[in-house]
Design a protein that fits this description.
The structure is a homodimer of 345-residue chains. Chain A has 345 residues and is α/β, with parallel strands linked by helices. The first copy, chain A, contains 13 helices and ten strands. The first copy, chain A, has two domains: 9-182, Glucose-6-phosphate isomerase like protein, domain 1 (Rossmann fold), CATH 3.40.50.10490; 190-327, 3-Layer(aba) Sandwich (Rossmann fold). A five-stranded parallel beta sheet of chain A has the order 2-1-3-4-5, with helices on both faces. A five-stranded parallel beta sheet of chain A has the order 7-6-8-9-10, sandwiched between helices. In chain A, helix 4 links the parallel strand 3 and strand 4 (122-126). In chain A, helix 8 (184-191) packs parallel to helix 13 (309-327). Chain A is globular, with a radius of gyration of 19 Å. At the A-B interface, helix 2, strand 2, helix 10, strand 7 and helix 11 of A face helix 3, strand 2, helix 11, strand 7 and helix 12 of B.
């Protein structure tokens, strides 16, 4: 378990991801088909998702996924409306989803409990099916990822994405894409073959103390999650942006001391725009790390249907954060000063 | 207009804010009463807000404001669903609001146009009432802030907050708070008396190249806007967080080289929690700059009803960013490498 031996707990959990996602899909496929048929019949008007940290990044994927597949608007909950101010939203039958690895964030539990008592359909997407969040929700979609021992979440993130994709595609009755989802564990396995490139790219971050991570559209969640891993593991202030928002002001900061990580999975809609952003950043002298098509020093991410790319393209980013932690002398299994469950109200 | 003479264009616009807000309230009060009565009768089920940059921070305020005053769920739009993927959301009569200073962001214009052609009520909150966004929306709420010459938006941010507060409080028929809103220009004037403290606090940022800005609940938008001003003006990678999310992982980064700006307006619900966060950060050795009650070196923000605090407590942050720019040798009137209107699709 020592630093750099490649057998840390985190390293092991990163490699467990393809099997964990395959297991989730096998165990939950029928259950989710039944649940989503019920919500489709109920004609839910919109979706509210409550989550924090890594799970909130999964919620960002849910926002784009429901929007693309079912044209359902998704609001990310502001749990403090309930916990600080005591004012729950009027939900009008909206589907309310809580996402939490541990199922123990009191503010997420409270949000789901308030929605359930207001008569809305509620779902807990949770790794611990005995947790308070699972008990608070009417329905539970367990991640079946096994105990996650690392403080930095990896397999509970990709299994949560897979659970969301399963739910959204079942809800929208997208059979072809459901079949493609079943092939994702294989693609995730290929994404794990990014060792050498991730190791090389991590050197750019060795002496940095800040970075930005850019993506666009459906891949916005991936930028957020990679930035969070860089913060937790490599103690690097990595701020995620939509490439569009970044060009609205923060690009002023671009310079040689600010590495930029560009998430642009192959064969996706934002690819041309992301290439233009890369050229602009190069002109401004920013060191650029690309996660995308193989070649030109990019950390490669295999081509998969765009809707499912977030399950795959986060993996090169996890490996980048892991190697950046090692390069900067931190133990990925012992992030400084954080605990696995954080009890915010 | 030279650096440090206190008569820069930006400095002037920061000081114009109380008068600009007073002017907006006077010009638009009746108009907004009529509009909001119509939407109340239409029983809109939820609100979708489309915005980018500074205006997106105003949208964050709208999310909490509608939630608190009317229990209306608010979703922040993902414009790329329309512009990149061609899939507009199904709105079911939701109120769709576009916020933009210039009214010229093509993706925001497209989002509003799609909502209007789908039959949803649409509103443009915009400084230029002749802009494409104003033409795209069925209704226009002009900010009347006059031309904003600085690239960094200040008076169009606080007038947008005032427009949102006016709309939300009219919609919810909160007469007492509407009266309090009319007193905000006076409180904003008092918030401008933060020169000495902002100047002193800016020294903490003089040699930093990164910072975080924390707030909670209704004040989350203020953290985002102060972080954006620090990025645009002082070229400091300042990342905003909900204090709750920060404790879920990123707090691992806390150390003496990472200044933390805590936004905790006086007499507000999150105050006790923010004090606890301040103590935790002090234990970890982080330099802390407080925006809140007068005393202990804080940049003072006057006490006002919590619902309206975002109009006031951003001002000490604008002044902090201004002084941080000067301390770091940047001209606040010439932010590096950004333009006033950014045309993202």
């Amino acid at each position: 378990m020592s630093v750099g031996d490649g057998r840390s707990v985190l390293h092991g959990e990163i490699f467990e991801q393809p099997a964990a996602v395959a297991h989730l899909l096998e165990r939950e496929r029928r259950h989710v088909a039944v649940l989503s048929a019920g919500w489709r019949r109920a004609n839910v008007p919109f979706v509210l998702v409550a989550a924090r940290g890594t799970s909130d990044n999964a919620a960002r994927y849910a926002k784009y996924a429901f929007g693309l597949a079912s044209r359902l608007p998704v609001a990310l909950a502001a749990p403090s409306l309930i916990t600080l101010y005591g004012v729950p939203p009027r939900l009008r039958g909206a589907l309310v989803i809580g996402i939490s690895q541990s199922g123990r964030s009191p503010d997420i539990v409270e949000t789901i409990a308030a929605a359930r008592s207001a008569g809305s359909p509620t779902l807990a997407i949770v790794n611990d099916p005995e947790s308070p969040l699972a008990r608070a929700a009417a329905e539970v979609l367990p991640l079946h990822a096994g105990v996650e021992r690392s403080v930095a979440a990896t397999k509970t993130y990709t299994t949560a994405l897979a659970a969301i994709a399963l739910l959204v595609l079942s809800f929208a009755r997208r059979r072809k894409e459901l079949d493609a989802l079943l092939a994702m564990p294989d693609a995730m396995g290929r994404a794990l073959r990014s060792e050498a490139a991730a190791h090389r790219a991590a050197r750019v971050l060795e002496r940095a103390d800040r970075a930005v991570v850019l993506a666009r559209g459906l891949h916005y969640a991936t930028a957020f999650e990679i930035a969070l891993k860089l913060k937790e593991l490599a103690l690097l202030l990595a701020e995620p942006f939509s490439a569009a928002d970044f060009q609205h002001g923060p690009i002023a900061m671009a310079e040689k001391d600010l590495p930029v990580i560009l998430v642009s999975p192959p064969a996706t809609r934002p690819e041309a725009e992301m290439r233009a952003v890369a050229r602009d950043l190069a002109r401004r002298g920013s060191p650029v790390i690309r996660i995308g098509p193989r070649g030109n020093g990019a950390i490669p991410s295999p081509a998969v249907p765009e809707f499912l790319a977030p399950l795959v393209s986060v993996i090169p980013g996890q490996r980048l954060a892991y190697h950046a932690a090692l390069a900067r002398g931190f133990d990925p299994d012992r992030p400084r000063g954080i605990r696995k469950v954080t009890e915010t109200r």
